[in-house]
Here is the input.
Amino acid sequence: MHSSILAAEEPLPILPLPGELIVGLIAFALLLFVLWKYAVPRFEALYEQRVEEIEGGLKRAEETKAEAEKLKAQYEEQMAGARAERARILDDARAEGAQIKAEARAEAEAEVARIRARGEEQLAASRDAVVRQLRAEVGGLSVQLAERLLGQALADDAKRSATIDAFLDELERDAPAKAN
Here is the structure.
């Protein structure tokens, strides 16, 4: 029984002593006051600072996004300008190609005309040479024919030449009349 009396007089090890309880409550209140007075405002200031940093970051992100959209619009505008410039250059190249083609065609036509004129000149020169040769031959034949018909020789060259020219002029006058 002795052990049960000792057990009643001794406090339970789980329950604090009343003095320790009061000191603990005062220490807790003091700790709560110090935390409330000094730590909580610092935590709130840090919280506000973090909120401001996050909001600032979001604002900067929005500004960066707006700047990126602005740059994208400028890029698209420049691309549209580049496309228009490319189309203009292609149109200019086509027009220049058409002009070069027209110039080449004009040069070719001029060359054809020049060659044709030279050919006509050569043809006229050949025709004149043939006419002269034919005149000479026809004149000689005419003189021989006249000598046979007349029975005498046309000895005078001036007379012979005048007779040949008269005969040929008469043939030329008759030739256009017969052609019509």
Q: What stands out?
A: The chain has a mean pLDDT of 85. Residues 20-128 form one domain. The CA atoms of residues 139 and 161 lie 8 Å apart. The chain is about 90% helix and 0% strand.
